[in-house]
Amino acid sequence: MELGLSLGDAGTGSKPFGFMEKSSKLASKTNLGFCMGLSIGPNHTPQEDDQDKEKRSNSDHKSDNTNTSAAEAETNKRKSMAEDTTDSPIQLDLLPNTPVPRNQNHPLTYLVSDNGNTSRGFDVNRFPAAVVHEDQGDQDVAALSSSPPNSATSSFQMDFCMYSSKGRSESHNEADQAERASSRASDEDENGSARKKLRLSKEQSAFLEESFKEHNTLTPKQKLALAKELNLRPRQVEVWFQNRRARTKLKQTEVDCEYLKRCCETLTEENRRLHKELQELRALKTSNPFYMQLPATTLTMCPSCERVATTSTSTAAVTPTATTTTNNQNSTADPTSKTTGLSLSSTRPRFYPFSHTQTHPHQHTS
DNA sequence: CGCACTTGCCCTGTTACGTCA
DNA sequence: CCTGACGTAACAGGGCAAGTG
């Protein structure tokens, strides 16, 4: 596939794709190999930051698995809204707007170091005291629960805590699925049998989803706290986050593929158009000899303003890196054949094929 | 300091189960 | 009721990083 032969199309000349624009953000251990940033969604920030990992200390000790998912129907509806995050085929808005290194602004960091000063929106460690203080080992977590809750996520949490508290009244209507899952899980623990798939309740999923939005990886403390809050095994929480990350990545891959497909189509179309334009220029050359008496021209591009300055073949390029290379496809003296192919990794220039007399606004005087 | 070993987590792929049309 | 598609919980295996002796 031929790429980057651009002869000055006003419509598409201004960096239609933005290659590499976000490559630094995407440059992670799970890049696409193509290393192309996708700026489709304004909030898309794949955060697979491989910065320092939390020290792993705790093991997955089992917790009681009496599933408590008593939910009121209306709150169900409201919270399940948070779960629907993959509707758009283009934009993934599942992740936090600002990638957070694992050790920075991390709830666990708060637990270790702060005095209750650092509250971010949704924090799985900010549990209501009614739930947390039962375990004295989580006093630090309980202390955080006094942090001022934050807007929407906080209200969500508050509501959720109403029906997720262990001392809930029996008058609460438990979701059937959760109830069944709970009983199955309990049996499972008792029997110690092989895996039995149990579906998480909507509330559990929504809560996990909110936590995932906040941070897509878990520290051991967060995992334990979440498991305690949701009455799941830590292993379940861990698996859920693993699967959730996998789903996010899969979705992103689909989006990337779709985007690359569109890029390919666009470039193919542009290539076709440029070939046509080239043919027209050649026809013009034969029909208008005077036009071709102009000296051969080399197009050079200013890396800063992305404009093309024209110089004669005897003059030096503005910068070595900005010098366009010769298009091997056309070896004639046609001036247009001096335009060239820029690699995908470079910023797409705006070429002005007919600007033999055009002067550069920045006055590049080499 | 280097090395082997352990531990714990993550990623990837797969399996198995639940739900629904 | 049966069935296939789909979503997803759970698992397996390998890699990686940190801790430890």
UniProtKB/TrEMBL annotation:
<protein>
    <recommendedName>
        <fullName>Homeobox domain-containing protein</fullName>
    </recommendedName>
</protein>
<keyword id="KW-0804">Transcription</keyword>
<feature type="region of interest" description="Disordered">
    <location>
        <begin position="34"/>
        <end position="114"/>
    </location>
</feature>
<feature type="compositionally biased region" description="Basic and acidic residues">
    <location>
        <begin position="167"/>
        <end position="186"/>
    </location>
</feature>
<keyword id="KW-0238">DNA-binding</keyword>
<feature type="compositionally biased region" description="Low complexity">
    <location>
        <begin position="312"/>
        <end position="347"/>
    </location>
</feature>
<dbReference type="GO" id="GO:0043565">
    <property type="term" value="F:sequence-specific DNA binding"/>
</dbReference>
<keyword id="KW-0371">Homeobox</keyword>
<dbReference type="InterPro" id="IPR009057">
    <property type="entry name" value="Homeodomain-like_sf"/>
</dbReference>
<feature type="DNA-binding region" description="Homeobox">
    <location>
        <begin position="193"/>
        <end position="252"/>
    </location>
</feature>
<feature type="domain" description="Homeobox">
    <location>
        <begin position="191"/>
        <end position="251"/>
    </location>
</feature>
<dbReference type="InterPro" id="IPR003106">
    <property type="entry name" value="Leu_zip_homeo"/>
</dbReference>
<keyword id="KW-0539">Nucleus</keyword>
<feature type="region of interest" description="Disordered">
    <location>
        <begin position="312"/>
        <end position="366"/>
    </location>
</feature>
<dbReference type="GO" id="GO:0000981">
    <property type="term" value="F:DNA-binding transcription factor activity, RNA polymerase II-specific"/>
</dbReference>
<dbReference type="GO" id="GO:0005634">
    <property type="term" value="C:nucleus"/>
</dbReference>
<feature type="region of interest" description="Disordered">
    <location>
        <begin position="167"/>
        <end position="200"/>
    </location>
</feature>
<dbReference type="Pfam" id="PF02183">
    <property type="entry name" value="HALZ"/>
</dbReference>
<comment type="similarity">
    <text>Belongs to the HD-ZIP homeobox family. Class II subfamily.</text>
</comment>
<dbReference type="InterPro" id="IPR001356">
    <property type="entry name" value="HD"/>
</dbReference>
<dbReference type="InterPro" id="IPR050762">
    <property type="entry name" value="HD-ZIP_Homeobox_LZ_Class_II"/>
</dbReference>
<feature type="compositionally biased region" description="Polar residues">
    <location>
        <begin position="100"/>
        <end position="114"/>
    </location>
</feature>
<feature type="compositionally biased region" description="Basic and acidic residues">
    <location>
        <begin position="52"/>
        <end position="64"/>
    </location>
</feature>
<dbReference type="InterPro" id="IPR017970">
    <property type="entry name" value="Homeobox_CS"/>
</dbReference>
<dbReference type="Pfam" id="PF00046">
    <property type="entry name" value="Homeodomain"/>
</dbReference>
<keyword id="KW-0805">Transcription regulation</keyword>
